[in-house]
Amino acid sequence: MLRSYTTDGGFKCLLIQKHSCRIKWSGKAETLTFVAQNTLMFNRYWRSYNWFFQLVQFIILIAVLASFFVLAIVPLVLNVSHVSAPQIMSLSEKSPRQVIDIAMWVQAISTAGIFLLPPLMFAYFTHPRPMRYLGMVPPVRAIHWLLAPLALVSATPMFLFLAELVGHLNFGAAVKEQQAANERIFGAMLSGHTTFQFLLSFLVLALLPGIGEELFFRGILMRFAAKRSRSVFFPMALSAVLFAVMHTNPYGMLSIFLAGLLLAFIYYATGSLWCAMLAHICYNGLQVVVSYAAKESSVFRSISEQNHVPLSWLLVGNIVFIIVMVLLWITRKPLSNDWSEDYAPEELIEEA
User: pLDDT tens digits for 183-202?
Assistant: First the structure.
């Protein structure tokens, strides 16, 4: 049986179980021989390649961009600012303010090169509608703009409580040393006192990661996983696992995994990556606000330094979280069953 399909790129191709295909384009006809059966040919986008080759292309794109930003742009910034790499690696609250500010710009550059630009460029090369491919469409229900960030913010006391419990475990001297180094560096980045320093911290630690990491983990990796799974839970869980591992925070890994799982659910339930981005930015931004408030409040200092939250906060947070999740489920407009497919049904028009 011969079936004719029209692709988005303006090519018309016959899908047949033989070794030839007649292609019509701009009124001309040519005959092409190919080996693969049931393969849609002649699409100028990367989506015409199979799943594995697309994944390889994405990995190569990450490697190229990360290498350029980390090995070229970052050294240039350090050289111009007269700050050395050892000064960045040994960053602490006692470091000169210039070194801390440069370290934050280095963090921003690294985030852009690893998490932000690769998904955007991959979507551009892969699909004629890159924003839709990444899930960057507004939610159908306006209330999701409110419920999405409220879900993650209300879950924050529980995440902190779990991190506090895990903090009592002994994972060995090497893990403790790594954790101490992470806390030392991020403590320095949150040690500012001026409005500009607060805004810079919010940009580097909340805004850029909230956008870039959602594009990377939910926009691309979750989509890749969904292509090889019949269940929506597997891609959600896999993206959350990779999200937690990437943060290299052993004592916070459980909380980060649950936050990643919640972000994946928000994306699924709202059908909009914008909602997941907003929730992620609010979650990270809340931590920045708490860190700055800790300079003036003993309660916030306890939260910031020890992950300790008052029991009343934990109780209220859990109640609000349950209510928000129920509302989110009732009002859900989830991703369609074929959301991870490279070709939408309307792009393939059967003629006869």
Answer: 889 889 988 888 899 999 99
- Report yes or no on 11 lying in a domain: yes
Answer yes or no: are the C-beta atoms of 128 and 8 closer than 8 Å: yes
HSE, side-chain direction, 13 A CA sphere, residue 155: 25
Residue 5 pairs in a beta bridge with 13
- Residue 339's nearest CA partner among 245, 240, 279, 264 is 264
Q: Say if 258 falls within a structural domain.
A: yes
Distance CA 314, CA 114 (A): 35
Domain count along the chain: 2
* Token pair of 157 as six digits: 């006391």
Low-confidence ranges of the chain (pLDDT < 50): 1-43, 350-352
Handedness of CA 199, 202, 203, 204 (dihedral sign): positive
Tell me how far apart the alpha carbons of residues 164 and 169 are, in angstroms, rounded to a whole number.
Answer: 10
Q: How deeply is 318 buried, as exposed, middle or buried, from its count of CB atoms within 10 A (0-12, 13-18, 19+)? A: middle
Q: Could you tell me where the DSSP H helices lie in the chain?
A: 51-68, 74-81, 85-89, 97-111, 117-126, 130-133, 144-166, 173-189, 195-202, 208-213, 222-226, 233-246, 253-270, 273-293, 298-306, 311-330
Q: For 53-104, what is each residue's pLDDT tens digit?
A: 999 999 999 999 999 999 999 999 999 999 999 999 999 999 999 999 999 9
DSSP letter (8 states) at residue 335: P
Residue 120 resides in a domain: no
Query: Which pTM value belongs to this model?
Result: 0.84
Q: Which residues form the domain of 28?
A: 3-44
Residues in the chain: 352
Bridge partners (DSSP) listed for residue 31: 22
